[in-house]
């Protein structure tokens, strides 16, 4: 998947039903910190969620994984300041599969709630163990710790 240079913001959210319609809520921080302005029309892309590959081959359904992640994150974030926290922390190690490559050639993977992690020096389809090096509100960056065989 290519990420457009026109990308103004990136966040994870849920589709919710409201008044016979469906809504994806834009976090307030995207308007405060980003280039998004209230009242202007925007193109919106919806990406499929991804499951965490850290479960040793025992994958849950996407819905179960997201529900578990949301419950944990909701508890943490409601205690913190009422908004969702990134589902990763700096220094954390994970095993992931690189799903796409961005325009700059960096690998892209997604974890809980579709949260994006950029991994330099990787190719689409690679399975790697990564260490999260930097976490921002809407994206994280990681380095490869180990390259893994696909079925390992």
UniProtKB/TrEMBL annotation:
<dbReference type="Pfam" id="PF01938">
    <property type="entry name" value="TRAM"/>
</dbReference>
<feature type="region of interest" description="Disordered">
    <location>
        <begin position="42"/>
        <end position="100"/>
    </location>
</feature>
<dbReference type="InterPro" id="IPR012340">
    <property type="entry name" value="NA-bd_OB-fold"/>
</dbReference>
<feature type="compositionally biased region" description="Polar residues">
    <location>
        <begin position="72"/>
        <end position="81"/>
    </location>
</feature>
<feature type="domain" description="TRAM">
    <location>
        <begin position="87"/>
        <end position="146"/>
    </location>
</feature>
<protein>
    <submittedName>
        <fullName>TRAM domain-containing protein</fullName>
    </submittedName>
</protein>
<feature type="compositionally biased region" description="Polar residues">
    <location>
        <begin position="48"/>
        <end position="62"/>
    </location>
</feature>
<dbReference type="InterPro" id="IPR002792">
    <property type="entry name" value="TRAM_dom"/>
</dbReference>
């Amino acid at each position: 998947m290519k990420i457009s240079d026109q990308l103004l913001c990136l966040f994870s959210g849920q589709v919710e039903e409201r008044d016979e319609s469906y809504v994806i809520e834009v976090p307030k921080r995207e308007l405060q910190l980003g280039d998004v302005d209230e009242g202007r029309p925007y193109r919106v892309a919806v990406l499929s969620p991804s499951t965490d590959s850290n479960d040793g081959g025992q994958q849950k359904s996407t819905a179960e994984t997201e529900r578990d992640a949301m419950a944990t994150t909701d508890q943490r974030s409601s205690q913190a300041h009422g908004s969702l926290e990134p589902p990763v922390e700096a220094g954390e190690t994970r095993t992931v599969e690189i799903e796409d490559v961005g325009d700059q050639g960096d690998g892209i993977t997604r974890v809980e709630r579709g949260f994006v992690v950029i991994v330099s020096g990787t190719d689409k389809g690679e399975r790697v163990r990564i260490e999260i090096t930097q976490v921002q509100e809407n994206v994280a960056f990681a380095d490869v710790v180990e390259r893994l065989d696909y079925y390992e």
